[in-house]
Amino acid sequence: MKRAYRIIAPVAFALMSACSILPKPDPSDVYRLASTQPVSQGAPVSWSLRVTKPQTSEFLDSPRIAVVPNGDLISSYAHSRWSDPAPVLLRNRLLDGFQRDGRVTLLSTDETNLQADYELGGQLQAFQSEYHGTAVEVVIRLDARLVRGSDQRIIASRRFEVRQQVGDTKVPTVVAAFGQAGDQLNWQVVDWVVAQGNTAAKH
Description:
- This is ABC transporter.
- Residues 35-189 form the ABC-type transport auxiliary lipoprotein component domain.
- InterPro entries: ABC_trans_aux (IPR005586).
- With 203 residues, this protein is of the alpha/beta class.
- The chain has one domain (45-201): Rossmann fold, CATH 3.40.50.10610.
- It is built from three helices and eight strands.
- The chain has helices spanning 2-21, 86-101, 171-201, and strands spanning 29-31, 48-51, 64-70, 73-82, 106-109, 118-132, 135-148, 154-166.
- Strands 1, 2, 3, 4, 5, 6, 7 and 8 form an eight-stranded mixed sheet that branches.
């Protein structure tokens, strides 16, 4: 027994020593996608809507806060990240936009198996800040698709692109610009979906 202890003790000490020299993960500031969109009380529609995560590139499908410092180089801000991957952030932001707008009240997401009359999805092409010389702007580009739930037929599609100037290069300022761009995108997408859904519901 003593011999076993003499063998195990050095091994345990070595493992503890190894653990103590392993690099510790860098702490990250975690940001939400804020909204200042006001709550409105529009006339409610009769149809239901399912909001899904847009498809996107492998790089954007992560919590990294993407930045294009020059040309075709894409990177991310160090020690900072989103609370969720970009597609989830945008889906939740759009869902909140519909709830604040008040016209589409029968809402669900792709996190449930609930059926809906229409489904909003698409392709997230850009969700990043971009440098143009000394100027910085946030770019959100969404190729949106509105699909009929019963047969998955596309009834409308449109590209939305929002650009928001950033006051400086500090991450909190960039994040605030993402929030402003998200508000602009929400207004456009919500109005478009309501118009297209109402038109399709008449046929």
